[in-house]
From TrEMBL, chain A:
Family annotation (InterPro entries): 7TM_transglut (IPR025840), Transglut_i_TM (IPR025838)
Residues of the Inactive transglutaminase fused to 7 transmembrane helices domain: 23-181
Keywords: Membrane, Transmembrane, Transmembrane helix
Taxonomic lineage from the root: Bacteria, Pseudomonadati, Pseudomonadota, Gammaproteobacteria, Steroidobacterales
The protein's name in its UniProt record: Inactive transglutaminase fused to 7 transmembrane helices
Annotated organism of origin: Steroidobacter denitrificans
Pfam families (UniProt xref): 7TM_transglut (PF14402), Transglut_i_TM (PF14400)
TrEMBL record, chain B:
Cellular compartments per GO CC: cytoplasm
Domain annotation ATP-grasp: ranges: 43-298
Entry keyword set: ATP-binding, Ligase, Manganese, Nucleotide-binding
InterPro entries: ATP-grasp, RimK-rel_E_lig, RimK-rel_E_lig_ATP-grasp
The name this protein goes by in its record: Alpha-L-glutamate ligase
PANTHER family: BETA-CITRYLGLUTAMATE SYNTHASE B-RELATED, RIBOSOMAL PROTEIN S6 MODIFICATION PROTEIN
Pfam families: ATPgrasp_ST (PF14397)
Molecular function (Gene Ontology), one example: ribosomal S6-glutamic acid ligase activity
Length: 508, 329
């Protein structure tokens, strides 16, 4: 097989693997770190009102279009009320209705939101606004103001900031004074901006929302001015004139209406609260995949029963262990008993932990070897002898477990997971090498196997790798690509540099 | 480290990965392996081709047939027992004679009937074969090695290993048993390997493990400068072993019998790399020279002549890789 074929094949594998990985990590937001948690906020709106004698209708504007944030979950608490939610020009609305209510009522809306940079203002480009209705004097003032601001600006953004600057200096500004009183609230001023922007044929609206900060408790509604420049919505803070949507600003509703109104009752109070929380990133990624209509989560390992998931958590690491062994054998040149025996021993180490694993392995193999040498003197046939060694190995393991229980040493109990057939074969192989090639070679190969097993155990236990393999199993394609390359590596092994040192040209 | 890597590459040293990937995988088709992995098959092939091998006394294929051993060796005081699929000399027992009811090995150990049949039953069960598959045991002529090597070997039978690449003898060495190797001619057990100049058949310095030695560690005689007798015959046999199997990269093991001359013991489809240390020179240099210059349709005699012409020790520097590529294309 020529090398180009392999290069193309592994390039394809790498590309597929990385593409899937990038999609899952960046678009779906699957966490790259184990036990990663994402900040979420529990937001709550409580409407308190006094119902009148007749039917009551309470309307609450709830978050719908929330650039920079996504809603994970929402709920409505309202005993006995009929509830509908619907889209409205200002975003979304929840409407509670009740034929007859007694005493003051509290309705709750709760939502769990998280930061999601992929959410942007997704609504369509608005039409040009209608000219505001006003008397001639006001119109003249407005037109003069527009002309003045336009003269000093270059585009929609600078026009808006210029206008806001005029409005904020209302007291001293000849044009704006017509529209505002000294006591006008910031919201009234922002509202004026939308009116005058409409007069200038620029679509604008108010966006009301809350700042999600780390502190917990009641939050105040703040308003931003949203202006459309023909391509996208621009955000302005009407007081500070800062442009751009603050990162921690959650847009709750839009327009000139208040957050809630009541038909057939008296609105007493609306309170908004936010509480910061941490939630498993995996959960959020799943919801996000759901929202994006991606099936990659449905068909991922997370769709399996938990017990099966646990099995795959281990299985997916086996190729990593094998990869380590491949590197140690073909690039370093360490000799082991059996090609992948060390992986199985490494898997056994998972239960015993490394140090105990090595001790127990060494004890069992040495005792097994002693038994094997004794059996040699009895001249048993090969298969019965193997069976006998296997049985003795099991007995040894049981013995060690019981002994460690009596001595109150925990790890001895987990020994049962040692792959005893593999150990029996190792003992047999080792004793043959011992007889045929001498003790030193047998011990060397035994220790080599143990070192390789220990290294692959350490690599297989890296929590981050375990997490990556489980969440992004497609990364195993990278392992495949690596093995393709390694399969054509015909250079020296590291230990060969030592082995052939007598052949090194002198000097140079 | 990288510097050492480059210097080894410049010296044309063949590494295990390259041997496996570029030579064994390319020139040794898997289906031909049984011809060399089974010593019995190799023996039959060699006999058919008129290549001398140790005489076959008998074969024991089942547990049951172990009892036939005394019958098989009735007329032969000395004989060798070999598992047909054994590798690296594992499981071979050489009986030099009998004392009473017991067998005496070349090493001087006495084995009673029981011990020997236990060993044979292990061998038949596959203890020494690759992958533990059931095996058969060959009973054959015990080589009486020529006195020539007596001074530089300790017990056992020295043998000559020739690497044959697509019919061309590339490199050769003689393997001399030592006390450490228990009379076995196996380098990784401690036998001395000494390179042989392909052109003349004269031995060079030896190595034990990876260390160069000038004298045999047990007999303390000088190793180098010894003329191997029948060298042309040995090269001819080695070259003809290519046609025997069709394997492109093999090690041919030959012993020199006192009375019968060179005999082929076995062929190896994965010959080791220690021969490079024994010759103090890399194999790659010669392999590339061969690929670039040799006529692969030549008859055995012509191939031997080519080898003697080009592989006189020490062989010149590496030829350029593109020249090899051009010649191969």
């Amino acid at each position: 097989m020529n090398n180009r074929h392999i290069h193309v094949l592994s390039a394809i594998l790498v590309a597929v693997s990385l593409a899937l990985f990038t999609y899952k990590a960046h678009v779906l937001g699957l966490p790259l770190q184990p036990k990663q948690e994402t900040q979420v906020w529990n937001i709550e709106a409580a409407i308190k009102f006094e119902p009148g004698p007749a039917a009551v209708k309470a309307t609450l504007r709830i978050p719908g279009l929330t650039p920079g944030y996504a809603i994970l979950d929402e709920s409505f608490v309202s005993r006995g009320f009929g509830l509908t939610t619907r889209s409205a020009p200002a975003g979304r609305e929840a409407q509670w209705t009740l034929r007859e209510a007694k005493g003051s009522q509290v309705l709750y809306y709760r939502a769990l939101v998280y930061r999601d940079a992929s959410r942007i203002a997704e609504d369509t480009t608005p039409a040009f606004p209608e000219q505001p209705l006003m008397d001639d004097a006001s119109r003249a003032a407005m037109e003069a103001l527009i002309a003045e601001v336009r003269r000093q600006s270059a585009d929609v953004a600078s026009f808006t900031t210029g206008l806001l600057r005029h409005i904020n200096m209302a007291e001293r500004d000849p044009y704006v004074g017509v529209f505002l009183r000294r006591t006008s609230t910031p919201v009234e001023r922002a509202h004026l901006a939308t009116v005058i922007l409409a007069g200038a044929q620029i679509p604008a609206r108010l966006a009301h929302g809350v700042l999600l900060r780390s502190e917990t408790g009641q939050v105040r509604v703040e308003s931003l001015l949203e202006v459309h420049d023909g391509v996208q919505w621009l955000y302005f803070n009407p007081q500070s004139l800062e442009q751009g949507l603050p990162r921690d600003f959650l847009i709750w509703w839009r327009g000139d209406d208040p957050i809630a109104d009541i038909d057939g009752g008296t609105l007493l109070d609306v309170t908004l609260a936010a509480q910061q929380n941490l939630l498993d990133s995996m959960l959020i990624a799943e919801r996000r995949a759901e929202r994006l209509g991606s099936h990659s989560i449905d068909f991922s390992l997370f769709s399996l029963p938990i017990a099966t998931q646990a099995v795959y958590g281990v299985l997916l690491m086996v190729p990593i262990g094998a990869l380590v062994i491949m590197l140690l054998r073909n690039f370093i040149g360490i000799k082991t008993f059996g090609t992948f025996m060390p992986v199985l021993v490494a898997l056994a180490f998972r239960e015993t932990r490394l140090l105990w694993g090595i001790v127990l392995f060494a004890v069992i193999v040495s005792l097994g070897l002693l038994i094997r040498f004794y059996l040699e003197r009895l001249r048993l046939l090969l298969v019965p002898r193997l069976t006998c060694v296997l049985t003795v190995v099991v007995l040894l393991m049981a013995g060690i477990s019981v002994l460690s229980q009596k001595l109150d040493i925990q790890p001895g109990l987990s020994i049962a997971l040692f792959p005893m057939v593999i150990i029996s074969m190792t003992i047999e192989r080792m004793s043959i090498v011992w007889e045929e090639r001498g003790a030193s070679e047998a011990i060397q190969e035994g220790i080599g196997s143990l070192i390789v097993a220990a290294i692959s155990y350490v690599v297989m236990e890296i929590a981050w790798l375990k997490h990556l393999m489980f969440v992004f199993p497609e990364l195993l394609l990278l392992v495949v690509a690596a093995t393709l390359f390694a399969g054509r590596y015909t250079g020296y092994r590291l230990l060969e540099l030592r082995r052939f040192r007598a052949l090194l040209p002198q000097g140079g | 480290m990288l510097g050492r890597y480059r210097r080894l590459a410049r010296a044309g040293v063949l590494g295990l990965n390259k041997r496996n990937g570029d030579y064994i995988l390319r020139f040794n088709p898997r289906r031909l392996y049984p011809l060399v992995d089974d010593k019995l098959k190799t023996k039959h092939l060699a006999l058919k081709a008129g290549i001398a091998v140790p005489e076959l006394y008998g074969v024991m294929e089942t547990q049951h047939e172990i009892r036939r051993l005394p019958e098989i060796v009735r007329d032969h005081a000395a004989f060798a027992l070999k598992p047909a699929h054994g590798s690296a000399g594992d499981g071979i027992v050489v009986i030099a004679g009998r004392s009473g009811s017991r067998y005496r090995t070349v090493g001087g150990t006495l084995l009673d009937e029981d011990a020997l049949s236990h060993h044979l039953s292990n061998a038949i069960n596959g203890q020494f074969s690759l992958g533990g598959v059931p095996d058969v045991v060959i009973v054959e002529y015990m080589v009486r090695f020529s006195p020539l090597f007596e001074r530089i070997s300790f017990q056992g039978v020295p043998d000559i290993r020739v690497i044959v690449f697509r019919g061309f003898p590339i490199m050769a060495m003689v393997r001399l048993p030592t006390r450490d190797s228990h009379g076995k001619a196996n380098l990784h057990q401690g036998a001395v390997g000494a390179g042989i100049d392909i052109a003349t058949g004269v031995s060079l310095d030896g190595v034990v493990g990876t260390e160069v030695v000038t004298h045999h560690p047990d007999t303390t005689h000088v190793i180098s400068g010894l003329q191997v007798p029948d060298w042309d015959v040995i090269l001819d046999i080695a070259a003809r072993c290519y046609e025997l199997t069709g394997l492109g990269y093999i090690g041919v093991d030959i012993v020199l019998d006192r009375d019968l001359g060179p005999l082929v013991l076995e062929l190896n489809a994965r010959p080791g790399l220690a021969i490079q240390i024994a010759n103090r020179q890399g194999l790659l240099r010669r392999l590339q020279l061969c690929e670039a210059r040799a006529d692969f349709s030549a008859a055995p005699q012509a191939r031997v002549a080519f080898a003697k012409q080009w592989f006189q020790h020490p062989v010149g520097p590496m030829i350029e890789a593109d020249e090899v590529a051009a010649a191969v294309a």
